Amino acid sequence: QVHVVESGGGLVQPGRSLRLSCAVSGTSISTEAMGWYRQAPGKQREPVATIGGGGSTSYADSVKGRFTISRDNAKSMVYLQMNSLKPEDTAVYYCYGHGSWGQGTRVTVSS
Prior knowledge:
Helices cover 0% and strands 51% of the residues. It is built from no helices and 11 strands. The strands form 2 sheets. Strands 2, 4, 5, 6, 9, 10 and 11 form a 7-stranded mixed beta sheet that branches. Strands 1-3-8-7 form a 4-stranded antiparallel beta sheet, with no helix packed on it. Strand 9 (91-97) and strand 10 (100-101) form a beta hairpin. The chain is globular, with a radius of gyration of 13 Å. The termini are far apart.
């Protein structure tokens, strides 16, 4: 059974950085596309960044140049480095892969 667990969220001031982590157990992620999604209050869940099995990446326009997705296949981990955070980045962030979602980690950007 695939199990996905996110961590690293929290309260941060605008302009600061956070790194989210996604731990995947129960399977290898080496050939799987993995993604980060987010859901802000009152809004639908939306894709933030994806990384293919070969390492190719894609980003939502709203985070391009500020967020970086990466993966460590040996550790079955996926990361989201978030820089220059804005209040509009406030959301619950979810990791997705192998048909499974994590429980989410909350990011709040506020002064």
